[in-house]
Amino acid sequence: MKIDLFDFHLPEELIAQTPLEQREASRLMVLNKLTGAIKHESSFRSILEYVKEGDCLVLNDTRVLPARLFGVKAETGAKIEVLLLKQIEGDTWETLIKPAKRVKVGTVLSFGDGRLTAVCVSESDHGGRQLEFRYEGIFYEVLDSLGEMPLPPYIKEQLEDRDRYQTVFARETGSAAAPTAGLHFTEELLEELKLRGVHTAFITLHVGLGTFRPVSVDTVEEHDMHAEFYQITEGTARLLNEVRAKGGRIITVGTTSTRTLETIARDHGEFVEASGWTNIFIYPGYEFKAIDGMITNFHLPKSTLIMLVSALAGREHVMKAYEEAVNERYRFFSFGDAMLIL
């Protein structure tokens, strides 16, 4: 299947650079996955009209690390940018360095006038370095005071309030990017859903920067997905099995929740407590085993995310919906508007 089948023209001005003042103020497109019929809602709060008592929304409670650090080489004072990708063990992290050529094994880096230091312990391709950090106190507290949010490369504006790149239910620290479909929810909206008999369940998938990695092959089948850590508790698994048994719909919030549940269903045939790494790649032709619908944002052309959405609603329906989203001036990507697929 050719990657070009998932391409579309997106005017640059439709890429949302900043979040709206109110989380719920995003627009909502509702797409019927069977017929391709489209409805336009002026506010994300309209989600209340489409989810029913007994349904379950599944949300990713990962919390984004302020994982971008700006420091210097201790020996020369040369400026260095570090992006934390994954904790290897203890205080050793897989990172991306710019400019990488300045950092060799043994190089010592300093951040915040020495409050945090790191030594390079190994090198890999494309700017990858393993760093061992040294500090006093609690690492995440030091990182919180020195680090910046690692916003996607298509966002050029500074983020004034970095909590706006966290969901209101974020609690499990470890993500390199936000599960952005969840950014539309407020605590008040979640409470109203609960009062209407809609269940909410939480999973954890720590989003990797591979999410933003462009697909560089010609055909879908050639692409290798990055692996991301996921976790689902016994309580969440039990709730999802009960919802399914009673005929309720399981509606995931975001592609990360979708990939987690589909991994569980693929590996176990039902929802069970589990954790591990998943590189599941969902594209048209995939048969969904876990979910009935999904809330998601509008994704990049030729991305694995638009392929996943196309697997759920059909490529022709999705590409037509995206064409209409462009014509109706929807806001795209992380801080953009939302789509509900049912």
TrEMBL record:
**Reactions catalysed, as given in the entry:** 7-aminomethyl-7-carbaguanosine(34) in tRNA + S-adenosyl-L-methionine = epoxyqueuosine(34) in tRNA + adenine + L-methionine + 2 H(+)
What sort of enzyme, by top EC class, is this? transferase
Q: Which GO terms describe its molecular function?
A: S-adenosylmethionine:tRNA ribosyltransferase-isomerase activity
The listed locations are: Cytoplasm
Q: Pfam families, from UniProt?
A: Queuosine_synth
Q: Which InterPro entries match?
A: QueA, QueA_dom1, QueA_dom2, QueA_sf
EC id: 2.4.99.17
What's the domain of life for this entry? Bacteria
Q: In which pathway does it act?
A: tRNA modification; tRNA-queuosine biosynthesis
Keywords from UniProt, A to Z, are: Cytoplasm, Glycosyltransferase, Queuosine biosynthesis, S-adenosyl-L-methionine, Transferase
Q: What quaternary structure, including any partners, is listed in this protein's UniProt entry?
A: Monomer.
Q: What does this protein do?
A: Transfers and isomerizes the ribose moiety from AdoMet to the 7-aminomethyl group of 7-deazaguanine (preQ1-tRNA) to give epoxyqueuosine (oQ-tRNA).
Q: Which family does it belong to?
A: Belongs to the QueA family.
Protein name (Swiss-Prot/TrEMBL):
S-adenosylmethionine:tRNA ribosyltransferase-isomerase
Q: Which organism is it from?
A: Sutcliffiella tianshenii
Q: Which gene encodes it?
A: queA
